[in-house]
Amino acid sequence: MELKNTISADVIKIPLSAKTKPDIIHELVEILTKSGKIKNTELVYNHVMARENKRSTGLEKGVAVPHAKTPEVSSIVIAVGIAPNGIDFEAIDHQPSRLFFLLLAPPDQSGPHLEALAEIARICKSDETVNAIIHAATPQEVLAHLPFN
Fold this sequence. Notes:
Elements: E1 12-13, H1 21-34, H2 41-54, E2 63-64, E3 67-69, E4 77-87, E5 97-105, H3 110-124, H4 127-134, H5 139-145
Parallel strand pairs: 1-4, 2-5, 3-5
Antiparallel strand pairs: 4-5
């Protein structure tokens, strides 16, 4: 799975305006709707929230990766958002989340879904990369800091 084929400037938003976990997820889903990647915003939102309600996808170092499988997509789809001040995303380190990768995959594609999650995890292991992305001012800067560009 190569994320460089799924993340483009039109699916990156700086800054996110939402202040709560459900609103952040809704805003990220709307980014995908506006970019033409999905059609049914509410159905996708419900799939992501159902997954999120099982266990928070707030990781460490200010990163969250809300994700879900949904028949609304035929291949991996990703939106990226930055909330510079952070929001409570129930992260495992109890710190505010600032960098969000919303990942959607079709229900029949477990392999690519897991590969994409692993690639995001690899990117986020680098404090330097995460910091650079969180402090990016434009989508182009975010893309420049992702290691696959």
